[in-house]
Amino acid sequence: MNAHAITSSASQGSVGSYAARLCLSFLLILVPFGAVMAGIVPSELSRPAIVVLCVGQVLVQIVWSLHPGTRKDQRENTANFVCTGLVIAIMVAGYFR
Questions:
Q1: How many CA atoms lie within 13 Å of 45's alpha carbon, on the beta-carbon side?
Q2: Alpha carbon of 55 to those of 69, 71, 81, 90: distances in Å?
Q3: Long-range contact pairs involving 85-88 (C-beta distance under 8 Å, separation at least 24)
Q4: How far from the centroid of its chain's Cα atoms is residue 26's Cα?
Q5: Other beta carbons within 10 Å of 62
Q6: For residue 35, what are the contacts with CB-CB under 8 A and spacing of at least 6?
Q7: For residue 24, which of 81, 64, 51 has the smallest C-alpha distance?
Q8: Please, what sign has the CA dihedral across residues 25, 53, 51, 60?
Q9: Angle in degrees, 0-180, between the axes of helices 75-96 and 43-66, rounded to the nearest 10
């Protein structure tokens, strides 16, 4: 095993961190769905709540899956993060349209 493989696997996280990420992802999916279906959130606030939680879900997936950074070997991930930011901006702008 070379040094790159060791540092690469060490930055990915443990099984516990993957389980926490999975639980947070499910929570960010189920909370808005449950809030809308149960009628907990007033109808005029349901769309903004869904948009906010959707953006949170996308950010969680990007940060914990791609591990964006500014190091030279992570510039491609940073470009993906910027493109994701543009997609989020388009989604939010579509909400206000």
A1: 5
A2: 19, 25, 13, 11
A3: 87/58, 88/55, 88/58, 88/59
A4: 11
A5: 19
A6: 41, 46, 49
A7: 64
A8: negative
A9: 170
Tokens 């790159």 found at: 4
Distances (CA, A) of 41 to 16, 38, 51, 94: 32, 8, 13, 21
Q: What is the pLDDT of residues 4-45, one digit of tens each?
A: 544 444 456 788 888 888 888 888 888 878 877 888 888 888
| Cα–Cα distance for residue pair 57/5, rounded to 1 Å | 29
Q: What percent of the chain has pLDDT over 90?
A: 0
Nearest 5 degrees, angle CA 65-CA 26-CA 22?
A: 40
